[in-house]
Amino acid sequence: METDEMIATLAADLTPVQPVVPWRRAMFWLLLAVTLITGAVAWYGFRPDIHERMLMPSEQIQWIASVLAGVLAALAAARLAEPGRSEAWALLPLPAVVVWLAGLGWGCLADIARLGAAALTLGTSWHCMGFIVGLGVPLLAVLLYLLKDGASLRPGPVAALAGLAAAALSSAGLSLFHHLDAVLMILVWHGAAVALVAGIGAVSGRFALAR
């Protein structure tokens, strides 16, 4: 049998393999994340001042930016899990993260102007840390599982973005039912929790996803 005939014969018996579409899995994950966070908000109930706070432009910008940071980070992780995609996709959530942090920073300055030195008092809020990490880490694990087929190409960046996505959305959900008196506390406790989950993703991803 000629080589060409042999190749044709072997190829005829092959079953087509459906290509993995990571962004579809990311969209499924986003739906799951929104469902879980909505359930948490329904369980705890909206914070008493939610209507007043959400009428403030600064609060709207911060909250929308945190949601966008989570959504764009998930999509960026999915894109990086696709072979041949540019590493520049890792920068997709950066503008939203910058706006989010800038909004919190501006809120800190506004608190200082309104309250003086009292605005710099930093209390503890382990509930914030516990909720964001407690929900963020399982969501991180689910997203890494969904993207594992392609994530081994760039395990560190994909896992870090997955952690950012999970933590940012958890932070956005927490803001709907948990109240902190000072924006500085939000910046410190939410920021630390988000950084922790993203860091867990970056470190664990190198071992969990590498082949």
Describe this structure in words.
The protein is built from eight helices and no strands. It has one domain (21-208). Helix 2 packs parallel to helix 7 (155-177) and helix 6 (126-151) runs antiparallel to helix 7. By secondary structure, it is an all-alpha fold. The model has no long low-confidence stretch (mean pLDDT 82).
Summary keywords:
transmembrane helix; 211 residues; membrane; DUF1109 domain-containing protein; NrsF; 8 helices; mainly alpha
Write the layout of secondary structure elements.
Elements: H1 3-12, H2 22-44, H3 50-54, H4 57-80, H5 94-115, H6 126-151, H7 155-177, H8 183-208
Helix pairs in contact: 2-4, 2-6, 2-7, 4-5, 4-6, 4-7, 5-8, 6-7, 6-8, 7-8
Helical fraction:
over 70%
End-to-end distance: 38 Å
The overall pLDDT average reads 82
The Rg value, from CA coordinates, equals: 21 Å
Spans of 5+ residues with little confidence (pLDDT < 50)?
none
Number of helices: 8
Largest sheet: none
| Helix-strand category | mainly alpha
- Domains, number: 1
**Number of strand elements:** 0
Q: What order do the helices and strands follow?
A: HHHHHHHH
Transmembrane segments: 26-46, 61-81, 88-112, 124-146, 158-177, 183-209
Organism: Humitalea rosea
InterPro entries: NrsF
Protein name: DUF1109 domain-containing protein
